[in-house]
Amino acid sequence: xxxxxxxxxxxxxxxxxxxxxATLMGEEYTKHKSMQREVAFLKDxxxxxxxxxxxxxNMEEELDPQTREWKNQVMEMAFHIEDxxxxxxxxxGEDSNRGxxxxxxxxxxxxxxxRTRHQFANQIQQLKTWVKDVxxxxxxxxTKLKMPEPTHTDEVQDLIDSIREYIREKKVLFHx
Length: 176
What we know:
Elements: H1 2-26, H2 33-56, H3 65-97, H4 102-145, H5 152-175
């Protein structure tokens, strides 16, 4: 039961993060095209990770320790991303209320907004690297854990190769 709650929490957090990333993409928060691309990358990659989490919901009892650890890392990452987005949205809202009236106040407000966007852009880069690492780690785990099983076509090909070898041997015997 606790394991199911953990999966539900992780998918719930992921859904919240995906909604906030969608908001970031649609709002004036990301005026720069490069930041929009980075946020779009995070959203796409996290959507893929979320799909894996949803598949794991029904398999909680069968999960190996590596997969459980990966899920914990995803949840930690999702909480951190959500905190970064919340901080940025809060700071951006405060930036519009900062500064005084007149020219100097507007310049101070503009500088604060630039500083906030720059800090967020740096955080987005770090988050992007983290998301890539978690995604790659999962791919490596899957590759290491799955052994290719022979398929029906492999067996048929083996049979065909055996028949060819048998025929070659018979031809050599008959021609000499």
